[in-house]
Amino acid sequence: MTTSMAVRRRAVRGALSAMFALIATCWITTPADAAKRDNKALDDETLGYIESNTLAIFYHELGHALIDVLNIPIYGQEEDAADVLSVVLFDEIYEKEDSDLIAYDAALSMLIDAEWNDDGGEAPFWDVHGLDLQRFYTLICLHYGGSPETRENFRVDFELPDERAAGCADERALAESSWGGILDEIENEATGSAKFKFVREHEPGTEAQSYMLEILQDEVTHWNTFVHLPEIVTVSFVLCDEVNAFYDPELKAILICAEYADYLVEQYRE
């Protein structure tokens, strides 16, 4: 399933320790304050961050769509299963350098979410999603476990404890065996003849939104070169009045909110 369609390359950002020091303190501005800034032209680093996280978001929602249309039995939280697929696809689709870049950026986004969504220390234990920091460490573990011999710096940078790291190769092997058969199934014509359908319901109002739209269109085009589904799944770029992305089982649709693109810009600027 690996293709030559590489993510736009850029230098891996350093100073991860500085990032951890920063989130240990209060942010100087809030997301709402930052949103008032002028929409400056975005540099390659910011565009790269948008790209990585757009892919991670799309692959997560893709997991929900496949679970639904293929009637995949899930033991445990469906959100966890979708997170696992997202990380597995980093390596399935991209070369190592690009996969590492996506994982770094996706991990940083989860880390910032953990700080911004703290809500005064009252964690949303009731939510169907795992806590942001739990999802963060699972991403680190699964990506590290895919190649422990070459990703030790990744583990160290994000301070994954030795106790968890010791079992990450096994966690990754289980993830690959669980999702590997599903990915093989959707490449089999016997599964069906339906494809993904891309729908632009919102015209981009910012450079970030335009870039996210471009990435999603490219992804749908790429997946449709090999995917076979029992029914059409729509991928819609929409305006939601909130930062969100979700799968609607009634509509058989992945909805990516345009607001998410601008939110990623503010994350990266922080």
Write up this protein.
The protein is α/β, with parallel strands linked by helices and 270 residues long. The chain has one domain. It has helices at 16-23, 31-34, 44-69, 78-93, 96-116, 132-145, 152-157, 162-165, 168-186, 207-223, 259-269; strands at residues 196-200, 233-238, 245-248, 253-257. It has a 4-stranded mixed beta sheet with strand order 1-2-4-3. Helix 10 links the parallel strand 1 (196-200) and strand 2. The protein starts with 15 loop residues before the first helix and ends with a helix. The relative contact order is 0.16.
Q: Which structural class best describes the helix and strand composition?
A: alpha/beta
Assembly state: single chain
Could you tell me the radius of gyration in angstroms?
18 Å
Number of helices: 11
**Strand line-up across the major sheet:** 1-2-4-3
Number of strands: 4
How would a textbook summarize the main sheet? 4 strands, mixed
Low-confidence regions:
2-38
Q: How helix-rich are the residues, as a percent range?
A: 40-55%
Q: Kindly, what is the distance between the CA atoms of the first and last residues, rounded to a whole number of angstroms?
A: 35 Å
Shape, per Cα inertia axes: globular
Strand content: 5-15%
Q: State the domain count.
A: 1
SSE arrangement, N to C: HHHHHHHHHEHEEEH
Mean pLDDT across residues: 85
